Amino acid sequence: MMVVFALFHGFAHGGLFAIVAPITAEYFGTRSHGELFGIVTFVSTFGAAAGPVLAGVVFDATGSYQMVFRILTAVSVTGLGCAISLKRN
């Protein structure tokens, strides 16, 4: 199962990096593309670095990842709502 997961996750995550720059340009234009793409990349990197640490802190405090999954589900749903509400430039 781990190999199957790794294959699907690898393609999905790799595909994400390939489309972030064009999507940023499509929705916000190319005038400030570098600045916006930098912000998107920074926030993504910060989340990738801080997320596991914060999840570990929550696990140490509660003995479960359940709260982490609930919080991340809420963040994901909020992000999806924001993405759906965007209008193309």
Order of helices and strands: HHH
Percentage beta strand: under 5%
**Are there runs of 5+ residues with pLDDT below 50, and where?**
none
The CA-CA distance between the termini, in Å, is 42 Å
Structural class category:
mainly alpha
Report on this model:
The protein is an all-alpha fold and 89 residues long. The protein has one domain (2-85). Helices cover 87% and strands 0% of the residues. The protein contains 3 helices and no strands. Helix 1 packs antiparallel against helix 2 (33-62). The longest helix is centred in the middle third of the chain and has 30 residues, at 33-62.
Topology:
Blueprint: H1 2-28, H2 33-62, H3 66-85
Helix pairs in contact: 1-2
Please summarize what this structure is:
The protein is mainly α and 89 residues long.
Supply database-style keywords.
89 residues; 3 helices; mainly alpha
